[in-house]
Each structure stands twice: as structure tokens, then as C-alpha cells.
Specification:
The structure is a single chain. Helix 2 crosses helix 7, helix 5 packs parallel to helix 8 and helix 7 packs antiparallel against helix 8. 68% of the residues lie in helices and 0% in strands. The protein is globular, with a radius of gyration of 15 Å. The chain is built from nine helices and no strands.
Length: 133
């Protein structure tokens, strides 16, 4: 099977995987939700393809699931875990996380995203030792 992508197309795909939070420039709520939905769709192994700095961004955190967090706790390098603990303590970023989760719920007429974020935070706090570096 031949690769029909140009080098530039390959680099663009790689950048989208590593830095989904940089895909949108204006950072409107709808764009932040789009990033969160894209993170939510990733499986556990794909989540560690994101650059560790992405875990300092509210739209990335807002897309995480308990499975993602469990995988990170068990398999990710320490800089991923460190950044998760940093954002968890950043009130402004966490306000953004809950704002995005609420908007995601309103978009889908549900409350599952806010519950999911609560479960993610609870998992991190319950397993804090796994996130210490």
C-alpha cells in the first residue's frame, strides 16, 4: 500500500495528534468543545500521543475519561502526570473545564460530561499517589 500523503500533510496530521488544543486559534467556547469532543473520542493509547503540555489546557482535560486517566496513571511519563496535577490545582483552568463540560452537555441535552469530569477528578484524587512524581 502506497502512502499518498505529502510530507506537509503528514506533518499536519502529526501536529493535530500531538497538539489538538492548538488546532483552533480564537479559542471560542465552541472550538474548545470541539477539542474536548476530539479528546473524548480517543482511546487510551492514543491519549499519550498528545504532547504533555496539552494536559495543562482546559479543553484537553475536559475531554478526558476515567479510562484515559487510569491509563495515564499506569503508563504515561511523569511530565503528563505532573501537568494533570498542575491543572487540577489551577482554579481558572478548572473553571474552564467545567464551562466546557456544561456546554458539551447542553449541546447533547444531557449531564453526562459534567458527571464524567467529576469522576475523572475523583479518580485522580483517590489515586493521587500514582500522579506524584
Amino acid at each position: 500500500m502506497e502512502n499518498n500523503l505529502s510530507i506537509i500533510e503528514e506533518l499536519e496530521i502529526e501536529e493535530d495528534i500531538k497538539t489538538p488544543h492548538l488546532s483552533y486559534i480564537t479559542e471560542t467556547l465552541s472550538e474548545r468543545m470541539r477539542v474536548s469532543f476530539s479528546i473524548l473520542k480517543k482511546n487510551e493509547t492514543e491519549i499519550v500521543l498528545i504532547a504533555s503540555s496539552g494536559f495543562l489546557i482546559d479543553s484537553v482535560f475536559a475531554g478526558l475519561t476515567e479510562k484515559h486517566i487510569e491509563y495515564i496513571a499506569k503508563n504515561a511519563p511523569s511530565d503528563y502526570k505532573k501537568n494533570i496535577m498542575i491543572i487540577l490545582k489551577d482554579e481558572e483552568m478548572m473553571r474552564g473545564v467545567f464551562e466546557i463540560a456544561k456546554a458539551m452537555d447542553e449541546d447533547k441535552n444531557t449531564n453526562q460530561n459534567q458527571e464524567r469530569i467529576g469522576n475523572v477528578i475523583r479518580y485522580i484524587k483517590d489515586n493521587q499517589i500514582a500522579f506524584e512524581f
